[in-house]
Design goal:
Strand content: 25-35%
Number of strands: 10
Order of helices and strands: EEEEEEEHEEEHHH
Structural class: alpha+beta
Helix content: 10-25%
Shape: globular
Distance between the termini: 30 Å
């Protein structure tokens, strides 16, 4: 399964979220697709770096999942899908950034998109829901390689 990730760029005040796809070699490459261009007017800036995302082929630790690994500064390593899902449910939209302009990327930094002060709570909820739908966070855990809760209970 190829993973798609949202990568934020700020071009002189014009916000963009580009889509990067995971290749068979384990790196990420930029695609011409963009995410939610009409909803970016609700955002002001991004937060400071909150952690890193490493491509599965370049992760030095062996993980239980096949998706990229998130090394969040305030917690344990987690699957990229679980990380985005948990934060999107709290109306926090996490995006990735890269310091390189190269087409292929192996590591990203994690940032939170900050809403403008005058944005209503309903608009924040709608934007978070559209974000989840756009990046397909709610996928089947079997496809993501994540262990299912209670799978060991059925065997006993």
């Amino acid at each position: 399964m190829l993973v798609t990730v949202p990568v934020y760029n700020n071009h002189f005040g014009y916000h963009q979220i580009n889509i990067y796809e995971q290749t068979e070699a384990g790196e990420f490459r930029r695609t011409p697709r963009r995410l939610m261009p009409h909803m970016l007017v609700n955002f002001d800036c991004v937060s400071e770096s909150l952690g890193e995302v490493v491509a599965p082929a370049y992760d030095r630790r062996q993980q239980d999942w096949n998706s990229p690994t998130v090394y969040f500064y305030l917690g344990r390593p987690r699957s990229f899908f679980r990380f985005l899902r948990d934060h999107a449910l709290d109306r926090q939209i996490m995006v990735l950034c890269t310091n390189t302009m190269s087409v292929k990327v192996r590591k990203f930094t994690i940032h939170e998109l900050r809403f403008k002060r005058n944005v209503a709570t309903a608009v924040k909820a709608l934007t978070a829901r559209k974000f989840i739908e756009a990046i397909d966070v709610f996928i089947d855990p079997d496809h993501a390689g994540q262990p299912q809760a209670g799978a060991d209970d059925d065997a006993a």
